[in-house]
Amino acid sequence: MRESDTINPEQKVMLPSDKFAICISRSQCSGGVTFAHLLGDKLGIPVYDDNIFDLSAKDHNIRRDLFVKNEDNTDFSVPIIYGAEYASSGAMITYTDNFLSNKNIHSMQSETILRLAAESSAIFLGHTADFVLRNHPNLLKLYISEPMAIRIKNLQRDYEGVSDEEAMDRLLKLDKERRQYYNYYTGMRWGRCETYDLALQPSFFGIDYATDLVMEIIRAKQFPLMGTSLAGEH
Fold first, then answer.
1. Whole-number mean pLDDT of the chain?
2. How many Cβ atoms are within 10 Å of 36's Cβ, its own excluded?
3. What secondary structure does DSSP assign to 126-158, as a single string?
4. Phi-psi region of 200 (alpha: psi -120 to 50; beta: other; left: phi over 0)
5. What pLDDT sits at residue 101?
6. 139 has which bridge partners?
7. Do the bridges between strand 47-48 and strand 122-125 make them parallel or antiparallel, or are there none, so unpaired?
8. Taking a C-beta distance cutoff of 8 angstroms, is the pair 208, 220 a contact?
């Protein structure tokens, strides 16, 4: 398959008007994962984070690490090498003899995100889901971040012995990689207010209030609540 044959997933899926999607971008060590799962628990809807890699691998019958490599990649012009030893048994992927382009891998992952959004209301954490679902009739795009001092403490909580300077360097590097990936595939600007509907600092609001605030926004926007914990409210 040539690069010009890359699938445009948005042309294949009609997103339902009786469901909604919450897409969350976040800076590293800002509590975005905790926020997403607490919100998902309160709403009673699924949260898709790095399990997107597993689901995409299953959908397309190729190895999970190809999707991980693509998001870790910093040179998007270089294809992901997979070779015969990396392909799943019975895989039908034959774009070339031994590689998949980054755009094709991203396109496959996007197809999985679209499928999941068509099946139920859900929360999507990262993976350019806000761009992939940009045509969803009921979409809320959030950005979660914290001051650097809090992010450093969060990283040091998870990795003992890391100095403030080392933690800051690591966080800035991760932010840069995330920004490059997002900007490359979306043409938008990661972390900029105009890209999102709402930006939050959970530590300022308190995480419970922050999740309750998002639930109030869902009500105010009259998103369809069928299948959520809010379905019986008036």
1. 84
2. 24
3. STTHHHHTTT-SSEEEEEE---HHHHHHHHHHH
4. beta
5. 74
6. 21
7. parallel
8. no
Identify any residues that bridge with 24 across adjacent strands, giving them in sequence order. Answer: 125, 142
Amino acid at 129: A
Backbone angle region of 56, left / alpha / beta, with phi > 0 → left and psi within -120 to 50 → alpha:
alpha
What SS3 class is residue 44? coil
Taking the alpha carbons at both ends of the chain, their separation in whole angstroms is: 52
**Helices of type H across the chain:** 32-43, 51-60, 64-72, 83-86, 102-119, 129-132, 148-158, 164-186, 202-205, 207-220
Q: How many CB atoms are located within 10 Å of the residue 101 CB?
A: 20
Q: What is the mean pLDDT of each run of 10 residues along the chain (234 residues)?
A: 42 80 94 95 95 91 84 61 43 47 86 95 95 95 95 93 95 91 89 90 92 94 88 69
Residue 125: name the closest of 22, 31, 218 by CA: 22
Q: Is the pTM above the cut of 0.85?
A: no
CA distance 27 to 131: 17
Tell me the C-alpha distance between 231 and 100, whole Å: 43
Beta pairing class for 122-125 and 99-100: unpaired
In angstroms, the CA 102 to CA 72 distance is 11
* 10 token code pair: 């948005």
**What is the reported pLDDT for 87?**
40
